[in-house]
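Table S5 (text form). Sequence records supplied for joint modeling of the two-component complex.
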Amino acid sequence: MPQVKIIAKNFMDMVASLPAMKLDKLYANAFICEAILRSLPPLAKKYVLQMLFIEGPVSATSMQEWVLADGVSKHQVAIDRLIQLRLFTETADRKRETTYRLNPVLQANLQKLLTCGEVLPREPMPPNVTARLPSLEDLEAFALEKWECFLLQLINSSQAEKPTNISSSMMKIFQRGLLSQREKEAPRLTESGFQFLLMDTNAQLWYIIREYISNSEERGVDPADLISFLLELSFHVTGEAYNMNTLTDVQSNTIKDLSDLGLVKLQQGRKESWFIPTKLATNLSVSLADSSSRKQGFVVVETNFRMYAYSTSKLHCEILRLFSRIEYQLPNLIVGAITKESLYTAFENGITAEQIISFIQQNAHPRVAERIPSVPENVTDQIRLWESDLNRIEMTPAHHYDEFPSKEVFEAACDFAREWNGLLWEDSKKKRLVVKAEIHMHMRDFLRGQK
Amino acid sequence: MNSVAPKLYADDVSLVMVVLDTNPFFWTTSSLPFSKFLSHVLSFLNSIMLLNQFNQVVVIATGYNSCDYIYDSSLATDHGSENGKMPALCSNLLQKLEEFVIRDQQLRKDGSGEGLPSSLVSGSLSMALCYIQKVFRSGPLHPQPRILCLQGSPDGPEQYVAIMNAIFSAQRLMVPIDSCYIGSNNSAFLQQASYITGGVYLKPQQLDGLFQYLSTVFATDLHSRRFLQLPKSVGVDFRASCFCHKKTIDMGYVCSVCLSIFCKHHKKCSTCGSVFGQAQADASGSSRKRKISET
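The corresponding structure-token record, covering 746 residues in total, follows.
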């Protein structure tokens, strides 16, 4: 079974991988400091806060005294993360003692934030200019519709009723890795594509945003600028209107792309135009942290393997179709069954049993979510069993060697194969061995040398 | 996919109920001016809000005659501040605080007793617990609550029963009560509160650095407390107040039926009405010395 996993929540690693200069530049923006602080593990946050008003360096030994014996590993993780993100600078003083110091730029920014309170990135527009703003519910519906529309187009371009304005080249970038297209064949979802669909919205959003950022250089946009703008965006207030002319050119181009994803809603007034951030945008910095995000579920699985999904969404139907047989669809209900065949197709497509189970558990309807377990045990067990059925045989391309002239040559060949980590089977009595196909060439050279 | 969840929680999301002592009698005698104290506290509130987007802060003012909610971060939606200089949190809180202090003053009754009058901590604790109860009932997903008492004025022995009841309810709800005592002597009530509920009791030595105490000790979320060294209580004053004269006593009489405490021998329990027999000369029969913490 392939072990491909999409690392979607790992946005912070992406930030950490930025060159030091860019990273330091990012911290000049107070919002980024805040977003990054919030993304840290709890202990690391605590350390930053504790050191915020300490000007000098703090020695590693004295920091170790802050933690109990149980917390040493957590402590190390926190310190590593802080150094990786350059929040802490590590120095060794004369006595060769390691000391840590908070990044001075970040320190100043956070100090200001604490003493002066939070400020908004930009002032919302007065209500007399923006005549009528959509209500929060409308806005959320808008965001969801856009996002689902985008996802549908992403997985199946023909399914989307209203094609988004995202350029096809941009779509190609997003689809890269999720879809594979062989010649003269309809594009097929890859394993990671399936896994992508089973992730929650925030994780999906970050995957897309990550692709968007990593692709930015090709479009001539500095990734650091883009990251800082996206993080800043997440500190705007949902449902308020912000003037477009406060944005730079790069930012206003970006915001147009973002409106296609449902992150912002663009509106045009008589003279001015403005953008209204939706929940998706303000949640951006939330999903930075791998918080256990939950949402209202919709799936009920019964012990007889029947599945009822209370949803009107076409996307949900498509997702459920990935691993179950959809039997019929009522206006607000999708009814399906989890069968051996439907699961085998899922497994063939590279979805694992664990993913399916976690999907139905995470999306359990509130009525069944209260129960423990939310998905009947016989169903989860059976899904796992069916998966392990497929794993009974493992195939490895191999080569078989026999008729060795002497015991010594055979032993040497075995040792050689072992060294390359390619020995699959040996029979010393009959002097036969089987090696992995990839070391066949080396083996042949080796045996020739032996002669 | 369905909807972006209204609540997303990591394990360090906390709800901090801050009980703020606004007793004017205490603050006039305090070495730390109230304004300085407030600025430390405001920075502390800001830092709690900074740590996590879903953190929630509720401030309850404890006055001399009354107590009231003065700030709730979940209600503060208007980010835009009117004058543009002061952030929303500060201006909202300060305004409410001023209104509260004026109201508290108007409630003042004449004829206060001798010594420094105490604040109405029992009322504030009960309000905090009510709020927490409401949060618990709001659904399966809620932030982890804790109470922080910022207290300066001395204990009021007359509130003994009410405070103990609040402490035990907090213990039942598994809500720790942290206390930061800035008065001159230690507070027996708060020591007991923190001891019983598993919170932290701290009496800062340097009041100028109050923020550092607050951020180092009291900003720690419940999840991280399992891994961090926090101040341990050196000793707890377990003395109880008698029910009859509200005096703090070392030794006393305890009703064997309802565990009420009296400083003198009575014929009948004033709480449950049980009739006591004749007390022995050295008070050993039905009444004996008892520590309240054992109840």
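Note: Chain A has four domains: 11-116, 136-282, 299-390, 398-450.
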